[in-house]
Amino acid sequence: MDKKDLRNSLIATATRLFAERGLNGVSIRELSTAAGVSISMISYYFDGKEGLYSSVLSEQFSCFEYMKSIKERDTGPLDKIEEYIRWSIHRNREYPYLLRYYTSELTNPTRYFSVIVQPALETALQILIGIIREGIDKKLFREELNPEDTALAMAGMVNYYFLSTLATQKFVNHSPERDEELIRHYMDIFCKGL
């Protein structure tokens, strides 16, 4: 196995194990055994378990960079909100462990919260707040809306759909084939209300 494959194998194994049990719930020995490498490789590539955890968080939260491209689109606020919903659904499907890190770091932050997680979330929310303000200014949205509360409600609704999968699988169809329908439903809720 070449160096890149070895590093990727460690990241993939650690992503799953840390998501399941948290930073302190996984030993360096468990990580090396599960990845099929010696402990020294974790030190070599990541300077130890915490460095590996930091790399996993960086990889998981790097997808939030996409919010900058949504902000820079030459489209109106409604199109940007639809793209935000589309991206959020895609993000949750492509990064199935992300919400575990998200909730774990929000409720039990590690020392990496302030340097990796918080900046990613703040940037995404600030961009979404700006899109909502733009919609209010253009009279597309009600002027009495609080942009911050609206952004949090929007982010929460989309994320909760995925967070609740286990609890709702008996009565909600969570298949990817339904994503376009879900996007339409969320746009209707945000734009037309109930």
Features of this protein?
194 residues, mainly alpha, Tetracycline Repressor, domain 2, 11 helices, Arc Repressor Mutant, subunit A
Question: In words, what does this structure look like?
Answer:
By secondary structure, the protein is mainly α. The protein folds into two domains: 57 residues, Orthogonal Bundle (Arc Repressor Mutant, subunit A), CATH 1.10.10; 132 residues, Tetracycline Repressor, domain 2 (Orthogonal Bundle), CATH 1.10.357. Helices cover 73% and strands 0% of the residues. The protein has eleven helices and no strands. Helix 6 packs antiparallel against helix 8. It is elongated and about 60 Å long. The model has no long low-confidence stretch (mean pLDDT 94).
How many beta-strand segments? 0
Sketch the major β-sheet.
none
What share of residues are in beta strands?
under 5%
- The secondary-structure class comes to mainly alpha
Gross morphology: elongated
- Kindly report how far apart the N and C termini lie: 55 Å
Radius of gyration: 19 Å
* Proportion in helices: over 70%
Q: Given the structure, what is the number of helices?
A: 11
Q: CATH homologous superfamily name of the largest domain?
A: Tetracycline Repressor, domain 2
Average pLDDT confidence is 94
Please give the CATH architecture of the largest domain.
Orthogonal Bundle
CATH T-level fold name of the largest domain: Tetracycline Repressor, domain 2
Low-confidence stretches: none
Number of domains: 2
CATH C-level class of the largest domain is: Mainly Alpha
Along the chain, the helix and strand elements come as: HHHHHHHHHHH
